[in-house]
Amino acid sequence: MSFLKKLFGGGNDGDSSPKVTAEPVEHEGYSITPTPMKDGGQFRVCATISKEVDGEVKSHQLIRADVFTSADECSDATLRKAKQVIKEQGDRMFG
After folding, report:
1. At residue 43, what are phi and psi to the nearest 5 degrees?
2. What are the structural domains of the chain?
3. Residue 54 gets which letter from DSSP?
4. Cβ-count burial of 34 within 10 angstroms (0-12 exposed, 13-18 middle, 19+ buried)?
5. Which residue has the higher pLDDT, 84 or 20?
């Protein structure tokens, strides 16, 4: 039954929502804001990558399967992953 509650928006115990937000980091014109997502007793890689394109702020939600035991360790890994996505995809991530 809990699966159905989560599927339809009920019974969210808050474990899968971002709990920690680190300071935004600028990288090659992009702003990376790590938001490690609490997942049980661990933290999942999650961040918002944003950039102003043609006068409009575009953003991309980055979520990966990687999990870490501490929010700080997760934030560090999140920054590395976000920089990799920026290098590989650039502005295409917004399309």
Report:
1. -125, 130
2. 14-90 (3.30.160)
3. T
4. buried
5. 84
